[in-house]
Specification:
By secondary structure, this protein is an alpha+beta fold. It is built from four helices and ten strands. The chain has a domain of about 180 residues.
């Protein structure tokens, strides 16, 4: 979860919070209002060479993520582990192109242990800004300790930068250079800076009136009863991000984005 010079950003696909930044040239979709920046806390991460997640190419040229492999069952679960490494333009694929607000040198591949819906430990990778790797590591360490279930953690490059395609398979991911959807002039999504993460998209859909993304998220519109993988106020997921100063898109009453967490609040 080579640079292709496109911005994958449609009115449905490019949809998370935006944060005010210097003017940019792309103008694909309107941008969501930003909130004040909140510094992320720091946390140590282990040193190791990360691996990127590969995905097979279909006959139509689209890519799908290879399923992650369980590392242990509940009785022999290994301790949480993480590693941070550099990324290249080739690693980022369609999620980055010239003109994006940050470049490959500003980003890192973060490899973490996570707890799956199958009740076993897995390893996954996501791309985030270099400045937030310590905070994000703390978040996933906390979620692993709480056995909070995550479907998969795969860079969005595995889905060709298609946010809707990643959401449909319940992906958890970070960086994707795209615009956000909100009133006002076009602005970059916080994802375009690598300072936002979407977690368990199906269990935590984006809702705008009758529009639910991904569509399977309609089964989770009732937030009154917490089910595995759901972000709820006071729950493990929201609490883990709040502990490092990140804010939750589920607090937006007009267009709640339950899957969305960001360092800026946008």
């Amino acid at each position: 979860m080579g640079a292709v010079a496109i911005v994958v950003a449609t009115a449905c696909a490019a949809r998370r919070g935006a944060v005010p930044r210097p003017p940019v040239t792309p103008a694909v979709a309107p941008a969501r209002p930003a909130a004040p920046s909140v510094p992320a806390s720091t946390a140590p991460s282990t040193a190791a060479t990360p691996t990127t997640t590969a995905a097979p190419t279909t006959a139509t040229g689209a890519t799908t993520a290879a399923p992650t492999t369980p590392t242990a069952d509940a009785t022999t679960a290994p301790p949480f582990a993480s590693s941070v490494g550099p990324v290249t333009a080739a690693d980022l694929g369609a999620t980055w192109h010239a003109g994006c607000p940050v470049g490959p040198a500003d980003l890192r591949m973060l490899d973490v242990t996570y707890w799956g819906f199958d009740g076993t430990a897995h390893r996954g990778s996501l791309v985030v800004n270099a400045a937030v790797t310590a905070a994000v590591t703390r978040v996933f360490a906390s979620l692993y300790a709480d056995r909070f279930p995550i479907r998969e953690i795969v860079p969005q490059s595995a889905y060709g930068g298609d946010d809707n395609a990643a959401a449909a398979v319940d992906d958890t991911s970070g960086f994707n250079c795209r615009l956000a959807v909100a009133p006002g002039p076009p602005q970059w999504s916080v994802h375009a800076y690598g300072e936002a993460i979407d977690v368990d998209d199906v269990e935590n859909p984006y809702v705008d009136g009758s529009t639910v993304i991904p569509p399977a998220g309609a089964a989770f519109l009732d937030r009154s009863v917490a089910r595995p993988g759901m972000a709820v106020a006071g729950g493990a997921l929201v609490t883990a991000f709040a502990a490092v100063g990140w804010q939750w898109g589920g607090r937006w009453t007009a267009t709640p984005d339950y899957q969305h967490f960001s360092a800026t609040g946008g």
